[in-house]
TrEMBL record:
Keyword Lipoprotein included in the entry's annotation: no
Name of the protein described by the UniProt record: Protein nucleotidyltransferase YdiU
Gene behind the chain: ydiU
Gene source species: Photobacterium aquimaris
Cofactor(s) needed by this chain: Mg(2+); Mn(2+)
Family: Belongs to the SELO family.
Lineage of the organism: Bacteria, Pseudomonadati, Pseudomonadota, Gammaproteobacteria, Vibrionales
InterPro entries: SelO (IPR003846)
GO molecular function terms noted in the UniProt entry: AMPylase activity; ATP binding; magnesium ion binding; manganese ion binding
Binding site for Mg(2+): N253, D262
Length: 488
């Protein structure tokens, strides 16, 4: 394990085209203090967790100083926002501080969110607020615990600096850790500005640092695009299976590594509603929960267009077709695991369709339904409707579906591990909006106990955690109707 002074840095991104970013120093926060530190993320970069007690840690990640080997840089990119191309994007409130290299040679970006104004801040102040920092900190931990590809967050730093949003709020910084912060928008920026040589250099950089096995492929760039399509499909299939809505799937929020990126107005579904819109600012429902798979294809098509200096149409179409196939295959696999099914049968589509119709019709909590089903044995199924009394009253439709489910299970070669499999793929705990809101409100009063409890539970969301049962309960009525917008 390393100290702050012995971290090894390699600032490879800053060696790319100068147009891809601007070197700039972070702007300090007043009287910073540590809100929370995640030792699991420290372990990824081989950083000794004891550094959280070091005042230098707070100074570095509040913008008051930097380590000698850091090379702070605001990234430049563009992207499609709600379907419209916007050339005027980039790290408007964040900086890539540097790239930590582990003893095994793995590279991790250290990114400071809320570090002050940059050339890409437009009309913003470049700050993050405590509210949004807590949401992203908890969300990244929740997704990691669920096994969904994501960026991570090492720590939150609060301050006595005030900023104005809808109201006067506390400025904070979030220390984000990721294998890469490269977005679809990086390639779009180079394409639309005619920097095609630099676009090829960026593609070479991605292959070298993240997909070295593709360097010897017959068509490395086609293989790269296909790999991005596959990773995006895997990520979105995982979102759909667990009931996660991102909220702002602009191309500048899409990772070329298929990582869940830029948590803003995200939400996990409570009562099952396929057209759930978690972003209060998404008036048309472009990024509704059930639109995410098609938006993934739209975004990849935009990326494919940016790849046209490197690929022909056939290669781009092949990648997009691969996305659709991979998404369907992976989603079907994920959903079968949620029902403890190990083989595929032609009746599966109808079984899931009827289930989703049932959940929607009776507004059943998505997470708790599957978790409850994970406790019901095969023998109990025909008369097991009483297990669901807390979710919705017994109905003929439920009994009918449970009977069909039992009949489907009879086709399985071995059902002895069914409940174990289901409990490994149906979380008991998710980051519901009301829990995040409660954690925010307590943090604004200087109480970080709920953040600590949530980080512990969300790291292992499939375990029982009997001392944290209240975090797995149905949300209160007010908790289902919180309005979350991009300003979060």
């Amino acid at each position: 394990m390393k100290t702050l002074s012995t971290l090894k840095f390699a600032n490879s991104y800053s060696e790319l085209a100068a147009s891809l970013g601007t070197p700039i120093m972070p702007q300090p926060l007043k009287h910073p203090s540590l809100v929370h530190f995640n030792p699991l993320i420290a372990e990824k970069i081989e950083l000794d967790p004891v550094v959280a007690l070091d005042t230098r840690f707070i100074d570095i990640f509040s913008g008051n100083t930097i380590l000698a080997d850091m090379s702070p840089l605001a990234m430049k990119y563009s992207g499609h926002q709600f379907g419209q191309y916007n050339p005027d994007l980039g790290d408007g409130r964040g900086l890539l501080l540097g790239e930590v290299v582990t003893s095994a040679g793995k590279k991790w970006d250290l990114h400071l969110k809320g570090s002050g104004k940059t050339p890409y801040s437009r009309m913003g102040d470049g700050r993050a607020v405590l509210r949004s920092s807590v949401r992203e900190y908890l969300a990244s931990a929740a997704m990691a615990g669920l096994g969904i590809p994501t960026t991570h967050a090492l720590a939150i730093i609060s301050s006595q600096t005030s900023v104005i949003r809808e109201n006067l709020e506390t400025a904070a910084t979030l220390v984000r850790v990721a294998e890469s912060h490269l977005r679809f928008g990086h390639f779009e920026y180079l394409f639309y500005t005619g920097q095609h040589q630099q676009l090829q250099q960026l593609a070479d950089y991605v292959i070298e640092h993240h997909f070295p096995e593709l360097a010897s492929a017959p068509s490395p760039y086609a293989s790269l695009f296909k790999q991005i399509c596959q990773r995006t499909a895997t990520m979105i299939a995982a979102w759909q299976a667990v009931g996660f809505a991102h909220g702002v799937m602009n191309t500048d929020n899409m990772s070329i590594l298929g990582l869940t990126f830029d948590y803003g107005p995200f939400g996990f579904i409570d009562d099952y509603e396929p057209s759930y819109i978690c972003n209060h600012s998404d008036y048309s429902g472009r990024y509704a929960f059930d639109q995410q798979p098609s938006i993934g294809l739209w975004n990849l098509s935009a990326l494919g267009y940016a790849f046209t200096p490197l690929l022909d149409k056939t290669e781009i179409d092949d990648g997009l077709e691969h996305y659709q196939h991979q998404l369907q295959q992976q989603y079907s696999h994920n959903m079968r695991q949620k029902l403890g099914l190990t083989i595929t049968d032609e009746t599966d589509t109808r079984l899931f369709s009827d289930l989703f119709q049932l959940l929607k019709q009776y507004q059943v909590d998505y997470t708790l339904f599957f978790r409850t089903l994970s406790q019901v044995s095969i023998d109990e199924l025909p008369h097991g409707e009483h297990h669901f009394n807390a979710l919705f009253q017994c109905t003929l439709a439920l009994k009918t579906w449970l009977a069909c489910y039992q009949q489907r299970l009879q086709l399985e070669p071995d059902t002895r591990q069914r409940l174990t499999i289901m409990r490994q793929h149906n979380p008991k705990y998710i980051l519901r909006n009301y829990l995040a809101q409660q954690a925010i409100e307590e943090a604004e009063q200087g109480n970080y106990q709920l953040i600590d409890q949530l980080i512990t539970v969300l790291a292992h969301p499939f375990d029982e955690h009997e001392d944290a049962e209240k975090l797995a309960q149905l949300p209160p009525h007010w908790g289902k109707h919180l309005e979350i917008s991009c300003s979060s």
